[in-house]
UniProtKB/TrEMBL annotation:
<dbReference type="GO" id="GO:0046474">
    <property type="term" value="P:glycerophospholipid biosynthetic process"/>
</dbReference>
<dbReference type="Pfam" id="PF13344">
    <property type="entry name" value="Hydrolase_6"/>
</dbReference>
<dbReference type="InterPro" id="IPR036412">
    <property type="entry name" value="HAD-like_sf"/>
</dbReference>
<feature type="region of interest" description="Disordered">
    <location>
        <begin position="363"/>
        <end position="408"/>
    </location>
</feature>
<dbReference type="InterPro" id="IPR023214">
    <property type="entry name" value="HAD_sf"/>
</dbReference>
<feature type="compositionally biased region" description="Basic and acidic residues">
    <location>
        <begin position="367"/>
        <end position="378"/>
    </location>
</feature>
<dbReference type="InterPro" id="IPR006357">
    <property type="entry name" value="HAD-SF_hydro_IIA"/>
</dbReference>
<dbReference type="InterPro" id="IPR006353">
    <property type="entry name" value="HAD-SF_hydro_IIA_CECR5"/>
</dbReference>
<protein>
    <recommendedName>
        <fullName>HAD-superfamily class IIA hydrolase, TIGR01456, CECR5</fullName>
    </recommendedName>
</protein>
<dbReference type="GO" id="GO:0005739">
    <property type="term" value="C:mitochondrion"/>
</dbReference>
<dbReference type="Pfam" id="PF13242">
    <property type="entry name" value="Hydrolase_like"/>
</dbReference>
<dbReference type="InterPro" id="IPR050324">
    <property type="entry name" value="CDP-alcohol_PTase-I"/>
</dbReference>
Length: 458
């Protein structure tokens, strides 16, 4: 049963977005209702996404509009959200930002607090010859670049990739040039480069810019029939070019945020704690005795969502992963990293978690598969299927295991229509609004359920 309003939940959710709640910009089935119902129950949740390109406030507003629910920017953790922690480090220093279109990323960096921000378009405007093939994109860079008076004299302290580059050739060229520059100054190469007497052949020494990426995902799901390249592919390509051009003399040094990295999950948990306090007020000893003991990470990508949640070791919270089949992961395939649970979609995933926590069903019904390494179940394929819903203890056996002991009740959604009906009685299963041929006799049901449960059978 659901807790009383005064009770505080001891679990929470972290949702990926693309491939879980949305496909491209369109909501996936059940996502609207699922988030709406969780918020109605005041169950804390955050959106932990490797997407980005705008401020958390802007992104929360977009997701609110697409899902038709109110989402607080405090619930939003993007791939580049941890860059906020870098602002004190680069307070008045110059940074180069990469990714996005126009001046969007420049503006996001400014909103975060970075005071001196330049783009590849600015560098192109200063010296067009830096682009090996400018004929296609020159008009774009001329329109979006800005004249920076000291662009050839002031050090660029860091290169921050915020989203997938739209101009791989120019961005990779500029990044490579700066990493071989003297003191991070545009236009010159270090005299110490490739000095065999110096550590790491002097590559990435001589006060050159620090390099940051924030999304290791190689691909993401769009409305195309196959996944498309994401920032992780750009990162891999740049590292590959670096290794070839430096002939393997020096390993590329950089920092990556975003799932599955530990720092991103730490950052996400920190914001989840803050949002919990926003819902329920300040907690005593929140850092050492946080009420939330379990966080369910729901994602579609085994390489980021699943391994990230599985690997993250929190001081006071257990993270569990639920892999859905609506994005990168395809049903029937063997994921590189096995989740705690499998589910068809986000509604089913949340329903499973709620059942584990003793809450009522708020999602659509469906078969759920659990990884036998977690639950101790053993099947030939390593998965098991079952119907999940509200447990109603039988007054005769206290849900002690008889096959009549689990009868699942119907629930009405906010529109007033029946959202789901499910029975688990012998071999009888009714799911959703389906009319099915009965495999058992209605007369065999315990009397206390005959009047309380609406049945329509053919």
């Amino acid at each position: 049963m659901a807790p009383k309003p005064a009770e505080k939940p001891n679990f929470a959710f972290a949702f990926d977005i693309d491939g879980v709640l949305l496909r491209s910009k369109e909501p996936l089935p059940g996502s609207r209702e699922t988030i709406h119902n969780l918020q109605k129950l005041k169950i804390p949740l955050i959106f932990l996404t490797n997407g980005g390109g705008s401020t958390e406030e802007e992104h929360a507003a977009k997701l609110s509009d697409r899902l038709g629910v109110d989402i607080d920017e405090a619930q939003f953790v993007q791939s580049h959200s941890p860059y906020r922690d870098l602002v004190p480090l680069y307070d008045n220093k110059r940074i180069l930002v990469v990714g996005g279109t126009g001046n969007d990323i420049r503006n996001v960096a400014g909103a975060y607090g970075f005071k001196d921000v330049i783009t590849s378009s600015d560098l192109f405007l200063e010296q067009p010859s830096i682009h090996p093939f400018p004929e296609v994109s020159a008009p774009y860079h001329n329109a979006n670049g800005r004249r920076i008076p000291d662009i050839r004299t002031k050090e660029i302290a860091a290169i921050l990739v915020w989203s997938t580059s739209r101009e791989w050739t120019l961005d990779m060229q500029v990044m490579f040039d700066l990493l071989l520059s003297s003191g991070g100054v545009f236009g010159g190469k270090s005299d110490m480069a490739e000095d065999v007497a110096l550590y790491n052949k002097d590559y990435l020494q001589d006060q050159r810019p620090k390099l940051y990426f924030c999304n290791p995902d190689l691909v993401w799901v769009t409305d195309h029939d196959r996944p498309r390249f994401a920032q992780g592919s750009f990162e891999a390509a740049f590292e590959g070019v670096w290794n070839r051009l430096t002939q393997g003399k020096a390993k590329l040094k950089y920092t990556t945020f975003g799932k599955p990295n530990k720092k991103t999950f730490e950052y996400g948990e920190r914001h989840l704690k803050a949002y919990y306090e926003k819902l329920y007020g300040p907690q005593e000893k929140v850092d050492s005795d946080w009420p939330v003991k379990t966080v369910y990470m729901i994602g579609d990508n085994p390489e980021s969502d699943i391994i990230g949640a599985n690997s993250y070791v929190s001081r006071d919270t257990t993270w569990k992963s639920i892999l859905v089949e609506t994005g990168v992961y395809k049903a029937g395939t063997e994921p590189a990293h096995k989740p705690t649970y499998y589910a068809k979609d986000v509604a089913e995933a949340v329903q499973l978690a709620l059942e584990k926590e003793g809450y009522s069903n708020i999602g659509r019904q469906g078969g759920l598969k659990e990884h036998n390494n977690i639950e101790g179940r053993s099947t030939k394929q390593g998965h098991s299927s079952r119907t999940v819903g509200i447990r109603m203890p039988s007054p005769t056996n206290n849900d002690g295991g008889g096959r009549n002991s689990r009868v699942l009740q119907d629930r009405t959604n906010t529109a007033g229509s029946i959202e789901a009906i499910a029975f688990h009685f012998g071999k009888l299963k009714l799911l959703g609004h389906e009319t099915v041929k009965p495999l058992g006799n209605l007369e065999d049901l315990p009397n206390q359920f005959k009047e309380s449960v609406p049945l329509h059978m053919s």
